Amino acid sequence: DLIRVCYHIYLKTGSEPNKTTARAALQQIVASSFQRMERVSEDHEVERKVKGEKGVSDFPSQNHRDAFLVLRSLCKLSMRSSPDPSAAVMGTAMNGAVKKEKVEKKDDRSTKSDRSTKSEESKEEKVENDEKPPSAAPPPPAVHPMSSSDAALQSKILALELLLWVLSNAAPSSSLSNSGPQFQYAVRNYLCVSLLKNCTSDNTTVVNLSLRLFVPLIRLFRSHLKTEIEAFVTNVFFVILDSEHSSVEHKSLVVTLFDEICSDPATLAEIFLNYDCDLSAVDLFQRIVNTLAKIARVGLVQGKGGSIHFVAGAGAVRAEKVRRDHRELRLDAMKALRQVLASLHSSIVVPMNDQNSSLAEEEEDGGSLTVFSNQSGGLSESQHSLPKSITTTTNVTSEEPESAPSAEPTDGTATTTTPSGKQTLVQIYDSKKKRREEHMRAVLKFNQKPSAGIAYASKCGHVDGDDAVDVARYLLQNKEELDKTQIGEYLGREAEYQAGFSLKVLHAYVESLNFSSLMFDDAIRYYLSGFRLPGEAQKIDRIMEKFAERYTNQNPDVFPTADSAFILAFSIIMLNTDLHNPAIKEERRMTKEGFIRNNRGICDGGDLPQELLSSIFDRIQKDPISLKEDDEARERVGDGKKGGSDGVPSSLSPAAFFGNIYLEMDKERESNYQKERDQIVRNTESLLRRKRRSSMKSKHPPSQSQSQRPQLPRSSSIRGAVKFVSTQDTGLRDEYVTPMFDVTWGPALAVFSTAMESANGTIGALSAIATEEELEDAAENAAESIEVCLAGFHLAVCTAGLCGNETARG
Question: How many CA within 13 A on the CB side of residue 76?
Fold first, then answer.
């Protein structure tokens, strides 16, 4: 009740002192609930349990239950969208609808709650109904200084701030991360969902708070969130950084997040051990380093070769802002790369000093090494004395424990073994690296000759070259890396080629796709997104004929026969070429009437609905069927849509002297990014559902299906089937630093050397076009960039010497 009242005061009051007081009171109340839980957790004599119904996990104490309800309520508040701006008496119904919608979305992850869980939900409603006034009567309008959308935004921001405060003030060994399966469940199913929705928000404050929340989340719960961390980094953060439509400010926030993650050597090492050393996971550490290196060079290529144009008016102001934003973004990425090197260096030096601390106290050693310590998240200079006898990493590991704990593999996860001779995590990484090199060779061979690439992949064990279904899976799984023209040529081969094996692959390829409930032209887009249609009509016939058969089987109510679907599919391909081929003159392009006329009588002598044909024509005319690679190539070259007349860049066109063109460009960018954000959320949610479903299946066989029923699972189901390996479990000391450094030093060398060269020529390149203020800002940025680069070189040279990597050191 106190939290509900304070939340209501914060959102509804028009007095700033009252708002500040309510916020401070909320923070103290929330903090006290978790502090009470901490004290109870430290008391080993607590025996009392708060019992629930059968099948529901118990809370160790009432304080644990209260803290859980507060955490879950804050997570749900942070997920809420703008409320209905109706009268306050409608608040209860609205909150009930929101709850119902969330329960429906959660049905595929958990079953219905039992009576005990329902009682917890009813108790929680008092906490989370922030919009419902304490009294039954609705307050007068004068009490509402904010609109409903402003109140919803303030509610979301306040909830995120409170969550950040709770997690940031919890120690890594805090009972919060070890307080039982209920808290782990709440973090996975409430907090992670909240961060997913808010990390892609169009509000900078919400994005900033959400990304800052991700740092303590990894610090406290990374052993329970292996799947979620991979999904967030690969499907959200990397997509934002690679997107052409996301703002520079949003990219900078993500880079700052990586900087903070990389400042903790243990976190960075465990990312490498659990993902890069896992045969079934992505190379997360390597992708982080390569992505930061890519961001650290953004805008540098355009700055060379005299491609800086002189513009005036609104174009000059905008160009100056773009250059300034790119300079700051590059500097942030370089700092993050420097932080990676600092953490690698610390992973070697700190254990060395801990191991030799007693020796260092007794005798003085010559030659001290200056390193950058990052235990506090930043870079501070400190002295670490190194014994002369220690020259490489291998010296540190001479005193290994007699027996290292073994992490049993689950679903292909990395394994750790004793030093007796079995595979270690680093050996698994080497094996994975070898498989990656084999895969790249197979891709190269396939892009030259498909049959040769498949034969090589089969020889290396990546695919069964005699199984058409497995070859089709290989083509689908690697369609982003394989040449899509070669995929289309291979799938369209005649029946006589390789005794009809390519035709079997085509059939298996189509059978693996799901066209259910898709509109016909959308199904064609989805089908043709994996390869490029060949130029020969006979190959197109074979490819589209199998598609028409598959679509008709999965959508029997659309077409009476597969022949009708095949004729229309071929007609749509011709329409797409006719409407969007630049070689065809405008007056000779096909019209809607002509398209409808060409498809008369194709439905067993009858006509297809005119509305169907008309809608297909409109969608093809508005959005052509094309490969993503072709769209990106057109954007790079410029197809006339984004430039001025005669291919003149937009910045040089006469309209660039006025602000309207840039307003339209910003609106278009925001619209495109909104679509990307929606796609990010859908893809990540789908990925998490699939992985959790497979994890639960592997953890709970059918004979144990009843154990999955409670909404708050026990600890076994909370942990899931994915094993997380910590640095203490590996039986290693710092052997993992060497492969991590091998991944890092090449991109870091390219970034730092390019940045120093660019910084030296920055002022000269800008002197003819920039204002004095920009020149001063660029000079400060260049000086700081050089400082970061020199510090990065220093750390890299020291780490290379400790790892014994003479090539990198040279």
Answer: 23
Amino acid at 500: G
Nearest to 405 by CA among 425, 387, 390: 425
How deeply is 333 buried, as exposed, middle or buried, from its count of CB atoms within 10 A (0-12, 13-18, 19+)?
A: buried
Rounded CA-CA distance 13/172 in Å is: 37
Give yes or no for a contact between 290 and 635, defined as CB atoms under 8 angstroms apart: no
Tell me the per-residue pLDDT of 132-169, one tens digit each, with 9 for 90 and over. 333 333 443 333 445 556 778 888 898 898 888 888 87
Are residues 488 and 531 in contact, defined by beta-carbon separation less than 8 angstroms? yes
Judge whether 415 and 277 are in contact, CB under 8 Å: no
What token pair was written down for 103? 């329960």
In 3D space, the residue among 643, 654, 646, 647 whose CA is nearest the CA of residue 312 turns out to be 654
Report pTM. Answer: 0.69
Angle at 194 between CA 331 and CA 287, to 5 degrees: 40
Pair of tokens at residue 114: 């039992």
**pLDDT tens digits, one per residue of 745-771:** 999 999 999 888 877 656 556 665 667
Q: What is the pLDDT of residue 637?
A: 56
- The DSSP code for 180 is -
- The residues, any chain, with a CB within 8 Å of residue 469's CB and separated by 6 or more, are 508, 512
Query: Which SS3 state, helix, strand or coil, does residue 369 take?
Result: strand
Smallest CA-to-CA distance from 443 within 462, 427, 429 is with 462
Neighbours of 98 (CB within 10 A): 16
CA gap 732, 404 in Å, rounded: 8
Pairwise CA distance, residues 18 & 22, whole Å: 6
Identify the three-state secondary structure at position 793.
Answer: helix
203-232 residue pLDDT tens: 889 999 999 999 988 888 888 888 889 889
With H, G, I as helix, E, B as strand and everything else as coil, classify residue 268: helix
Q: Which of 128, 118, 132, 216 shows the shortest CA–CA distance to 171?
A: 216
> Per-residue DSSP letters for 321-347?
HHHHHHHHHHHHHHHHHHHHHHHHHHH
